[in-house]
Amino acid sequence: MSRAARINYAEAGQGPSADYPPLICLHGIGGDAESFRPQLDELSGNRRVISWNMPGYGGSAPLAETGFAQLAAALGEFMDALGIRRAHLCGQSIGGMLAQEMAIRHPQRVASLSLIATTAAFGGRDDSFKQRFLQARLAPLDGGASMSDLARRFVPEIVGSAAAPAAIESATRSMAAVPEASYRAIMACLITFNRRDDIAGIRQPACLIAGSEDQNAPAASMRKMAERMPDARFHELNGAGHLLNLECPARCNALIAEFLAETERKERTQT
Questions:
Q1: Model pTM?
Q2: Residue 141 sits in a domain of what CATH number?
Q3: Sign, CA torsion 194/101/172/160
């Protein structure tokens, strides 16, 4: 594990290349840098692949205030510390939300978006629903459960029928290691996300990948999201749930690799 700008991260592959910008992977609420281990191992043949531990996760320093503006600023500082001017972003769940936030706030720094099991806004427009959701998700902790207890209960509920036991074990291990304070802070941050009216302005190429059995970021919602983005393609993976980059890494990686190659090929022909 390496460290830059108070962020711990894992990486694989070659250093900076003008032809192959790095791929930065952004994990979900119950994840960490290891949530993208299959991508670190399999997508780093011709590029640098980096998987960060979000602030407050995996030994990364927590933020004084956790919001999407602050997370985007932290990501920008992280890229600066690594000497990365521009990168492809790959985000799962809230990591996908952060990738969208970065593309909207700092478009010049984002080469493309690979958005996995995510949405353009949390829930509906009803604030009472958001508060009920937050209370329900935190209730086990409020009742004395540990993050390990929460992980063992929660992870099997969000994966699809095709998930291998090893993937479930890896996800459970990552979630169990999340500090409770960080989990609470990022859950409160999650329910504030709303870029529903802004995604039509995202000009970067985007690849949206949904799981057919994902109840948190349903495939139908992601398909509609892709239809509103100027340069997006949509894929649905049968038998996959919310953690599809871990559940079916071969299929997920093939889509991302093809998308990155296509994006970079088009960019080279236009310059």
A1: 0.96
A2: 3.40.50.1820
A3: positive
